[in-house]
């Protein structure tokens, strides 16, 4: 039943309201913020963090070590808004293609303490850049993603047992079918959002970009 609930959750459409201020339906708790301006300067830098964990296995005097390397790419941009005010924007692991002189909008999703940019719209080049991983965070929060993965792993043994000794493989086929539907559903929702939901964001921010485009 929990797996079925996850599948249904993934097939629910991701939509924004007409004023492009929040998501609707199941995603009503997510709000939208954005800023539109002319890029004055941009800077990109990479930050790598290496973490080493030590663990002493039972019965051994030699500690085991695990090393994790995490690399993040930061883009910092200085903007001039339509009213002349300055604004600074920073995005992480987004690969922003915006150069000085171009008019760009940054769209951010907000829910509680979770804040991240998921779309960058370049009104000069008409390029729409959407971070699918960030959109997936809106559809399924990271804690729920972890629970989902653990649940899938935890089901492998009982489903394998039932398939061999009591279900003639039917439980495994149902589990596999639900997993396939989950993958197809989340891809379908993101694809439709990139076509329809993004159009609302573009319309809102493009109207704000017109004075800057005229100046440019």
Provide a descriptive summary of the structure in words.
The protein is of the alpha+beta class and 216 residues long. The protein is built from four helices and six strands. The protein has helices spanning 2-11, 132-139, 142-165, 170-215, and strands spanning 31-55, 64-81, 86-92, 103-111, 114-122, 127-130. Strands 3-2-1-4-5-6 form a six-stranded antiparallel beta sheet. Helix 1 packs parallel to helix 4 (170-215) and helix 3 packs antiparallel against helix 4. The longest helix has 46 residues, at 170-215. The radius of gyration is 22 Å and the shape is flat. The chain starts with a helix and ends with a helix.
How much is the radius of gyration in Å? 22 Å
- What amount of the residues lies in strands? 25-35%
Biggest sheet, open or closed, and with what strands and sense?
6 strands, antiparallel
Low-confidence stretches: none
The helix content is 40-55%
Backbone shape: flat
Element string (H = helix, E = strand):
HEEEEEEHHH
Q: Work out the helix count.
A: 4
Q: Please report the total strand number as a whole number.
A: 6
> In order across it, which strands form the biggest sheet?
3-2-1-4-5-6
Question: What class, by secondary structure content?
Answer: alpha+beta
Return the average pLDDT rounded to an integer: 81
**Amino- and carboxy-terminal Cα gap:** 56 Å
């Amino acid at each position: 039943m929990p797996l079925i609930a996850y599948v249904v959750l993934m097939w629910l459409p991701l939509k924004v309201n007409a004023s492009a201020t929040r998501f609707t339906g199941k995603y009503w708790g997510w709000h939208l913020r954005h800023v539109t301006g002319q890029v004055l300067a941009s800077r990109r830098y990479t930050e790598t963090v290496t973490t080493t964990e030590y663990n002493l296995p039972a019965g051994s005097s030699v500690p085991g070590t695990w090393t994790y390397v995490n690399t993040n790419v930061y883009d910092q941009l200085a903007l001039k808004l339509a009213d002349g005010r300055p604004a600074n924007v920073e995005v992480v692991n987004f690969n922003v293609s915006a150069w000085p002189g171009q008019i760009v909008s940054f769209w951010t999703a907000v829910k509680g303490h979770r804040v991240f940019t998921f779309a960058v719209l370049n009104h000069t080049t008409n390029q729409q850049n959407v971070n699918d991983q960030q959109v997936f965070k809106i559809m399924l929060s990271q804690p729920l993603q972890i629970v989902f993965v653990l649940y899938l792993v935890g089901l492998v043994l009982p489903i394998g047992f039932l398939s061999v000794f009591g279900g003639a493989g039917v439980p495994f086929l149902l589990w596999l079918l639900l997993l396939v539907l989950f993958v197809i559903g989340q891809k379908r929702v993101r694809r439709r959002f990139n076509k329809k939901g993004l159009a609302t964001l573009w319309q809102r921010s493009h109207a704000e970009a017109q004075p800057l485009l005229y100046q440019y």
